[in-house]
Write a structure and sequence with these properties.
Chain lengths: 161, 161
């Protein structure tokens, strides 16, 4: 299990290196917005790549909800070593995925003064979900918000094509 | 094992995203050198972090060779899912670690025309080794070269303090 642990740590360390680097490389007026969007795009491509390998031997999904359940269970477990704690939907194309202990936020210290950095720590994962869904034929917009750290919610809005 | 596989893929995808991003962000005269050095520095910090978690329960090492063996076996396996294939030393502070199928090069297509990109694909790992060694009290310079893809050699020169 120590190999496994270490691999999890590898992802966490790499993820924070990327945030730091993107943050320092994007200078200019709207640097914060650009930083978040760069991270989101990286996540998108990684999500596409991962889901392609991951669903090679998975049977077709029967509907949109079935796809979302797969993201919350199998996909989330593969990346974050736990499932999404709560999935809700309005049955009109909006899904809310709640993670009560989101791995990539546990590195960030708790406290209000760090809340402003939260978007940077969520952007990659928003992209990851959007990329995974996209490769499964579901076009979406994914946003995230922190409630009480390290809990957070990802909102998926399905874009009808 | 599919979770495990996916985690390995996650690292590979993230690694290539970082290379692409750093490559595009570093513009200027000596952009290639700067890109390599940024990647090396990221690897260094990730290596430091990983080894700290990884050697928490490991008994002290008896000498430098013992440390190098640990890097070649346990550390390499945790990151790259295989051991170093060959470790050689001149017993004067130079170690050559050969990996006959280096994971982060298998993504890069074979062929002479891609050889010029190889340094970018090795820089992060050079830093990773240097960071790991550094946290184990061994100061070093780590360089790498590709022989026939995806085989490569990492040369560690110990800096006596």
């Amino acid at each position: 299990t120590s190999v496994f642990m270490s691999n999890e740590a590898l992802f966490q360390f790499l993820h924070s290196e990327i945030i730091q680097y993107v943050n320092s490389a994007e200078t200019g007026e709207s640097e914060n917005g650009r930083c978040v969007s760069k991270l989101e795009n990286m996540g998108f491509r990684v999500g596409q790549g991962l889901i392609e390998r991951f669903t090679k031997d998975t049977p077709r999904f029967k509907d949109e909800l079935d796809v979302m359940k797969f993201i919350c269970k199998d996909f989330w477990t593969s990346v974050f070593k736990k499932q999404i704690d709560n999935l809700r939907t309005n049955h009109q194309g909006i899904y809310v995925l709640q993670d009560n202990k989101f791995r990539l936020l546990t590195q960030l210290s708790a406290g209000k003064q760090y809340m402003e950095h939260a978007p940077k720590f969520l952007a990659f994962t928003c992209g990851l979900v959007r990329g995974a869904l996209s490769n499964l034929g579901v076009k979406s917009i994914v946003t995230a918000e922190v409630s009480v750290m390290p809990a957070c919610k990802f909102q998926v809005m399905i874009q009808k094509m």
